[in-house]
Design goal:
Elements: H1 2-15, E1 28-32, E2 34-37, E3 42-44, E4 47-52, E5 55-60, E6 70-73, E7 78-79, E8 83-88, H2 97-103, H3 106-122, E9 125-130, H4 139-148, E10 156-159
Parallel strand pairs: 1-6, 2-7, 8-9, 9-10
Antiparallel strand pairs: 1-4, 2-3, 4-5
């Protein structure tokens, strides 16, 4: 019951006209033992990332530390860019894929898709392209929108909608 109140308050707040601009987000500096520099092709040691709001503003062995920034020492870890998977099927889970679309309801498969999106995000995937709902209609749009609105955790999603196949194809 309480989650409904929180969701309704969140939706009401998001849809209400804002009289004053939102306060600027406090910058955060992430510090780690290493940082994978993909463009340079090497590992920096140490590595830092400056996050301002929802955006990464600086990356390197050392970044600016703005006054009042939160400093988070991550210890002996390696920071790296988010991974991208351009071919996922969030609405299918391993095992008996041929029967899932018949034996499992669309709401059940949608819950499974939300959990799969969260697991992918926790595994480092920050962007994915879902290649069809396998008969779950526009449920992929609902999952993408819920992620975009911050209602559930998941990577940025590009969705394909209904899968396309040749006539009589399998």
């Amino acid at each position: 019951m309480i989650w409904r109140v929180v969701v309704l308050l969140t939706l009401a707040w998001q849809s209400a006209p804002c009289q004053t601009p939102p306060p600027e987000a406090k910058p955060t500096v992430l510090h780690a033992a290493r940082l994978l520099d993909v463009a340079g092709g090497h590992v920096l040691s140490p590595g830092e990332v400056l996050v301002t709001g929802e955006r990464i503003s600086a990356v390197g062995a050392s970044v600016p530390h703005p006054a009042g920034a939160e400093f988070i020492d991550l210890g002996d870890v390696t920071l790296m860019p988010g991974l991208i998977d351009a071919h996922v099927h969030l609405f299918l889970h391993p095992g008996a894929e041929d029967l899932q679309t018949v034996e499992e309801s669309v709401p059940r498969r949608t819950v499974t898709a939300v959990l799969a999106a969260r697991a992918d995000l926790m595994a480092g995937f920050t962007a994915e392209r879902d290649m069809g709902t396998e008969g779950a209609g526009s449920a992929d749009t609902a999952v993408r929108n819920a992620i975009d609105q911050g209602l559930v955790p998941g990577p940025r999603l590009r969705i394909s909608g209904n899968a396309i196949d040749i006539l009589g194809g399998a």
